[in-house]
Amino acid sequence: MSSLIGMLPSVLMIVSPILITACGGMICERSGVVNIALEGLMGIGAFAAAAFHVLNEVALGGASVWIALLVGAFCGMLMSLIHAFASISLNADQTISGTGINLIVNGITIFMAQILFNADRTQPYQMGMKPIMSIGGIYPTAFIALAVVLIVWFVMYKLPFGLRLRACGEHPQAAASVGIKVKKIRYIAVLTSGFLGGLAGGCLVLTQTIQFTSTTINGTGFIALAAVSFGRWRPAGISLSSLLFGAAVAFSIYVVNIPSLKNLLPSEFFSLLPYVITIVALVVFSGKNYAPLAAGKPYDKGSS
Q1: Model pLDDT for residues 82-106, shown as the tens digit of each residue
Q2: CA-to-CA distance for 81 and 140, rounded, in angstroms?
C-alpha cells in the first residue's frame, strides 16, 4: 500500500499532460473537427517551453517556468491555426491535415533546435518545475489539469457557448439555421485545443525531463486522443480514462523498483504496457459510437 501511495505524485505528474491535451481534443471534436494533431501540438509546445526556459531561466529566475508554459501554449495555438484553416476554411480532409501537423512538427523542432542550440535537442535546463512539498510533493501541473477540466465542463454544460459548440458538432446545419456561426465556433474550438495541447507539452517537458528531445512526447498525444474516445467525449469520462492510461505509464516506469516483477518479465514488456492497455480498452469498450455526429465532416453551408 505504501508503494502505491508513493506512486501518486508520479501518476498525477504523468496524467496531467494527458488530461489537459484530452480536454483540448474533446472540445475540438465536440465542435465537429477531428484533431489527430494532438501529438504535434504537444511537441511544439514542449519545444517552445523548454527552449524559452533554457534561454531565460538565469535572467527570469522562478518566473521563467510559468512564462515558458504560456509560450508553449501560444505556440501550440499558432500551430493549430494551420489545422483550422485547412479543415474549416478549405474543407480539407481533417485526418490528413492533422497527420501533416504531426509530421511537420518533428521537422520544425529539430530545425529550430539546430539553430538555437547546434543540436537536435535543447540544452538541459538547471531547474524545471518544482513539486509542492507541503502537498505531498505533487507538481502544480496536477492542479492546472484539474482547473482545466473544471473550466471545460462549466463552459460546455453551463454556458450558452457550450451548447452552441455541441450543436455544431452534432447538427451544424440546424445550428446555422438559428444564427450560430459554425465556422467561427469551430475555429475557436481548434485554437483552444492547440492552446491546451501546447500547454500540456510544456507541463510534460518541465516536469518529466530536463530537456526537449525528439522522443519527449513519445506518443502521449495519441494516448490523449484515445482518452477522448474511451471517455466518450465527456469531461468526467476523459478524466477517468486519462487517469487509467497515465497510471499505466507510471507503472511501466515504476516497475523497475519492484524486483519480483522486474525479474519476472523483460523490461520491454512493461514499456509496451501503456499502449497495450490503451488498445485493449478501446477494443473492449468500443460498443456504441458516442462520437459527435458531424465529427470529421466538413461544414458546407449549402448542404442539408
Answers
A1: 999 999 999 999 999 999 999 999 9
A2: 28
